[in-house]
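Lecture notes, unit on protein representations.

Consider one protein chain, 278 amino acids long.
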Amino acid sequence: MHRHISLAGGASFTAWLGSNMDALVAENSQASVFAGVTILMYLVVWCGHHLVLHSLVYSGRVPWLRRYKVNPNTPPSALVREAVLSSVLEGILQYPLIYLLFEHGLSGRMLFAASELPSACSAIGSIVLWHALFDAWFYWGHRLLHHPKLYWIHKKHHSFHATIGVAALFSHPIEGLLVNAGSTFVGPLLFPAHFAVWNLYFILRLHETIDAHCGYDWPWSPWRWCPFHGGCRRHDFHHSHNAGNYGGFWLWDWICGTDTPYRLFCGKNQGSESWKAT
């Protein structure tokens, strides 16, 4: 018998979604639902993460958390405010682009009905595949933007020499569209799945990029369980030294040898508490 994704407590995800998703799609176009829910998730997850980080971590309200800070430096307050405003406006203004992307790339290919929910194994398989495609696109796109003739596009993101959560999507519009959005959507566009799977994947993507940019190497980060994840230390090195570690995960950097500067740095600073390797 086909088993559907289940929520904690044994409640069927199909039953939970059946009373909501079918009615929502019946009253609106699939494109408007996809774009609207995606933007809503972006704003809720993004703002929620940063509310916690700024109120508890960056404010210094919980002093013992500072032991996990990777880089002793702190970005200028004006730059942080600019990044916050940019992130919120970017999320709102992307609605028409996401709407058109669905209309021309996913319409008729992505499932919405609660009765069509995939099995847990199928959903996990899609999310793993999408992350693999994300990392390939992101690595090569990011690495390309470090070419001297194209770095003017990427320079805005590297305004942050010490990483902080809001820096994750602080980028030039060209980079935001071709690298950030391109890497996020390439998997679902090539191998569509159910809308519920997209929601989970998108939340994971937001959490991963915030985690990598937050500036703190949390021992409880769920991404530590991912064998190929790059982590905060690797990406902070990329920002502070502007060298190597182009991937969201470390596999492509290892294959191409672009993590060599980071590994050499870790070897020289093995005894440093602030720069110990993951």
